[in-house]
Design brief:
By secondary structure, the protein is an alpha+beta fold. It has 4 helices and 14 strands. It has one domain: Alpha-Beta Complex (Creatine Amidinohydrolase).
């Protein structure tokens, strides 16, 4: 069920958005050669505890997960693109790292992700992939305006990917956000403009394009969570939680 938020409720969601943005900013600054993925998860855990927030991930166990996630941060490296389960791995120069984080503050959730390169890029294509994914997120946000349709967001994201020559997987995409991390509506990363749910003030969604360099096929790692590219190519993932208002999109997780 889709629940529209009142202006007062959107204001109540701002602290969650600000906290998620703060955590991702801190983690991105800590990414460096030699830093362990488990250390990044611990930093996020410590920040949750200090803030009095709650993790949306640690007990999360949807149908596509092999078990409760058990960590508070998704760390997807290189050919991993979504739901990366942190493990004992020290980052290396040139690694492509996606960090996805969601938390609840005072009962309201925010969800966001970013992708960075550790040190010097190994390939110009890695930099391009991140730039295109960022541009797709910006296009999707710009299309999230009252009076439009959900398909406008999906079409804007898909147009950026297609123009760059990337395939688009629609198995996973954006989603409604509120008291819980995942709710209606599903926001695919490709679609037809002018179709789908009317966009109304009060709708709060996470918009999250993710692309792979040379495929749109993925598989689940043996850890039961991490989604990897079928051909070993790198991936990138960008996400913001936004509220549709009378004045247009409001990015609650702006960094």
């Amino acid at each position: 069920m889709i629940e529209l938020k009142t202006p007062a409720e959107i204001d109540q969601m701002r602290p969650a958005g600000a906290f998620v943005a703060e955590v991702l900013t801190e983690l991105a600054a800590r990414v460096a050669p030699g830093v362990n993925l488990l250390k990044l998860d611990q930093i996020a855990h410590d920040m949750i505890r200090a803030r009095g927030a709650e993790s949306c991930y640690i007990d999360y166990h949807p149908s596509f997960g092999a078990s409760p996630f058990g960590k508070v941060l998704c760390t997807s490296v290189n050919d991993a693109v979504l739901h990366g389960l942190p493990f004992d791995y020290a980052l290396r120069e040139g690694d492509v790292v996606s960090l996805d984080f969601a938390a609840s503050v005072d009962g309201w959730v925010a969800d966001s992700a970013l992708t960075v390169i550790v040190g010097t890029p190994r390939s110009p294509e890695d930099t391009r992939l991140i730039e295109v994914t960022t541009a797709a997120l910006e296009a999707g946000i710009a299309a999230a305006r009252p009076g439009g349709r959900l398909g406008d967001i999906s079409a804007a994201i898909g147009a950026v990917a297609t123009a760059a020559g990337y395939g688009i997987n629609t198995d996973f995409g954006g989603h409604g956000v509120g008291r819980t991390m995942h709710g209606d509506p599903h926001v695919p990363n490709n679609g037809r403009a002018g179709r789908g749910l009317p966009l109304r003030p009060g709708l709060v969604i996470a918009i999250e394009p993710w692309f792979l360099e040379t495929t749109d096929k993925i598989y689940t790692d043996k850890d039961g969570w991490t989604l990897r590219s079928a051909d070993g190519s790198n991936g990138a993932h960008m996400e913001h939680t936004i509220a549709i208002t009378d004045d247009g999109p409001l990015v609650l997780t702006a960094r």
